[in-house]
Amino acid sequence: MSGLDRPLLDAAIAALRAEHADDAAFRRAAVDRFRGALGDGRAAILKDFAEDHGGLACASRLAALQDEIIRSLYDYVVRHVYPLERPSAAERLCVVAVGGYGRATLAPGSDIDLLFLLPYKQTPWGESVVEAMLYVLWDLRQKVGHSTRSVDECVRQAKADMTIRTALLEARFILGDAALFDELVLRFDRDVQARTAREFVAAKMAERETRISRAGASRYLVEPNVKEGKGGLRDLNTLFWIAKYTYRVQNGEALVEAGLFTAKEFRLFCRCEEFLWRVRCELHVVSGRAEERLSFDYQRRIAARLGYGTGPSLSGVERFMKHYFLVAKNVGDLTAIVCAAIEEREAKQPAALDRLVQGLRRRMRAIPGTGDFQVEFDRITVARRDVFERDPVNLIRLFAIADLYGLPIHPDATRLVTLSLRRVDRSLRENPEANRLFMDLLTSRRAPETALRRMNEAGVLGRFIPEFGRVVALMQFNMYHHYTVDEHLLRALGILAEIDAGRSRDAHPLANELMPTVVGRNALYLAVFLHDVAKGKQEDHSVAGAALARQLAPRFGLSPDETDLTAWLVEHHLAMSNTAQSRDLNDRRTIETFAGIAGTVEQLKCLMILTICDIKAVGPGVWNGWKGQLLRTLYTETETLLGGDSPDFDRNTRVLASQEQLRPALTEFPAEEFTAYVARHYAPYWLRTGLANRIRDARLIRTLWQEGKGFASDVATDKFRSITEITIVAPDHPRLLSIIAGACASGGANIVDAQIYTTKDGLALDTVSVSRAFDEDADEIRRAGRIAGGIERAMRGQIRLGELVAAKDSQPKGRTAFALHPKIIVDNAASRRHTVLQVSGVDRPGLLYDLTRALAGLSLNIASAHVATFGEKAVDSFYVSDLTGAKITDPGRQEVIRRVLGDTFERAGDRPAPATTGGPAAAGAPAAAGGPAA
Hints:
This protein is an alpha+beta fold and 934 residues long. 56% of the residues lie in helices and 11% in strands.
C-alpha cells in the first residue's frame, strides 16, 4: 500500500500538459505535482508509523510509494517529454530496483538504487528518458544511486565486482520491458551465481568482518550502529544474501523448506528484522536524516516513542536498549546457524568416497577422558546428539574442554546447546561437578574471557548464574561505560587473566608484581566477575553485589575466608578509584582514611588489581598512565601505613630531609642563595613535592629573580602518565587558578590535577596536569607553551578569557541527553587542614574555569584541585580554606557555597568577563591559595 493514487496523479500530469504550452512551465508544474504527491504520501505513511510503529510496514510502504512515483514519472517522460510513435526493438527500457530498495524496503531517509536496463543496441531515446527521469528525481531532492547498463554489461561487471553482484542478487522489476528483466535474471543465475557460492560466502563474511571492525567490534557498544554494527540490519541482510545465493531461494519462507532454519528460528529472524527496522525508521524520523548511529541523544526519545516506560529498577531508555542488545545477540545466534549450515553443505559436495573417508579420518579425533565430545575440523563438537540430555553437566563441560584444548566450538554444537537450555535448571546449578568446572573455567590462565563469552552467547552463562543473567544486555545510560554490563564484566575478567599470565608487565608493572603474591586468587577472580552484577537494582549496586557474592561464593566451593574477601572486594570495588582520582594523595588524612577501608595488605593488593581491571574494561581510552600513577601512589602510601613502616621522625625532620635532598642537585646556587630560597617555602611544599619538581621549581623561581620578570612558566611531558605538566610562577593573585583553568579551557586542554603553593614572599607556584593530546613530545610542548602564553597575556589584561571560554562552550554532542542534578558535598573530615568540596554534575568545556572563579568570588583559598570525568559526569574536588587558613565550619557559609557552586553548573555560556582579568593583585588583595594553610 503506497498511499498514492497513481491514475489520479497521471491524469493530473496530463491536465497540466494541456494547460501549459510552454515546455519549461509544464516541467516546473509537473515537478511541483510530483513533489506534492511524494510529500503527501510520505506524510501519510509516517503518520501511520507513529500510530502502529510497524517498522517493516513503514519501510515497505515507503518503497511502494517510491515505486508508484517512478512509474508515474516514467509515464510522464515517455508520454509528454520523449514520446515515440512506433518504438523499435532497440528502443526498450526496464527500470529495476537494486540493493536495499530491491528488497522493497526503504527507511525514511534512505537513498534509492536504480538500474536502468537497456538493450545491447541502444538509441538516443533510452539515454534521454533515463536523463529526464533522473533530473526530476534530483529536483525532488531524492538521493539516487543509479547505473545504466545492458544485460551483458551487468553480467560482466557482476563477475568482477562483489558489490555489484550483491546488488543484482536483489534486483526487482519496477516497470518497462519485462523481457529484459527476465533475461537479466536468467543470465545472472546461469553465468554468475551458479557454482560460485563458496566464493560469495567467503567474500561476504570477510566484508562483514571489515564492516564490523569499522563500526565497532562488539555488538554491545552502548551507542550501536543500527545498520552497520554487529547484530544490526546489515548482518541480517548478509545472512539472507548468503542463504539466497547458496540455496537459490527467493524469499525467507523458502529457507525453512530448504532446512536452513527451523520454523522457530525463522520466526526469530522475522522478529529481529521487524524490531531493527522499527528502530531504524524511528531513528530517521527523530533525527530528520539518514542517521544510523543510535546515540544517546536519540535513545531516550525513541524509547519514549515506542512506549518503554520506567520500571522498578530500570529507566525506559535502559529497558529499550536492553531489548535492542538482546535482539543483537539473537542476530549473532542466527549468524552462527547460517554459517554452520553453509559449511556443512560445502562439506557434502560430491567427492570420491575414499577421499571423503580419508578426510574424515584425518579431521575427526577423540578427546581423552570423554566419549561425549570430539574434535572435528579442529573444533570441539558433540559425539552424539543426546549428550546434554544424558548428562546436563556437559553443558558446562563443553566450554571447559574448549578452553583446555584452546579450540573453538563447532557451530553445530553451539546450536545444540541453545536447543538444550531448558536443562540448565536448579539441579544443574547445585551440581558440585558443574560448579567445579565453572570455577576452573573462571580462573583459567588460558582464555577465560573467551570461554565465558561463548557461554554467554549461547545463553548458558545467564541461566547457570541467574544473577549474571539479569545484567546480560543491560546498558548503563551514561557516556562513561562503552559496553553493556555483561560485556564489561567479561572484559574485566580478560584483563585480570592477562595480568595473571604476566602478559601486561609493561602496562601494569605493580599489578604483575603483586598478582603472584595474592593468596585469595579464586576470590579475586570471582569478585572481578561479579563486581557489577547488581547493576540495575534500586539499591547501591556495590552493597547489593556484596550480598549476592556471599550467596554465590559457597556454591562455587570458596571457603568462608574466600567468601568474605569476595564480598568485601565487590562492596568496595569503587573505593580505590574514587579516592585516587578525587582526593589529595599528599594529605595524610586521605591515606589514613583509605587504609581504614583497606584493612589489610592482602585486601589492598586484590583491590588494586580489581580497580585496574574495572577501569580498563570500561572502554577504549578510559585507562591512562595518569590514573595508573595515582593508583600506584595510593597503593604505596597505604601499604606503607598498613605495614607499619611509616617514618617515625616528626614533621620538621621530614621537611629538613627534603631540603637536604635538594641541595646537591642545585650546585649553581651559592650557599647563601640556597638558604634564602629554602626559607621562602612553607612546610607543606617540602612534604608534598617530589625531588624532580623541587629542582624544576627552584630553577624557575631563580630565573624569575634574575630576569626581574613578573611571570615564568615551564612545561614537561610525561608519556607514561599521558599528561603534560604546566608550572606557573607569578605574583599571587586571587583568580590565578581561574585564569590558568580558563587558558587551558580556551586551548582545549583538559586539566586532571592541580597543585597550588604560595611562597612566604607572595609568589604563587601552581602546577596543573593536563591530559596529553599529541603523541610527539615536540607537539605537546608547543601546545602547552601556547597555553602558558595565554595565561601570561590574561594576567596582563591583554585577552578576556571569559569570551574565549564562552566561544569554546558549545554543548558537546550527546551530553544534552543526560540530566544530572549538581551535587555539592562539604567535607571537613577528609583533611586535617582543609575543607574538601566535592562537586559533581554534567561536564562541559570551561566548567573548571567557572568553578574556580566562583570559589575565588567566595574568598576561598584553593590548596589543591583534583579533576575526574566519567563520561558526561564531572567530579571535581577542591581542598579549600578561608582567608585566615581555617576550615569552613559555619553552616550558613557552607550553604552559600553549595548554592553558588550548584548555580555554576547551570550557567553554561553565561560568563561575564572577570572584574579583574590581569596584573598583579592589588595591595591588600587576598591570596588565592597557600599561606601557612597551604
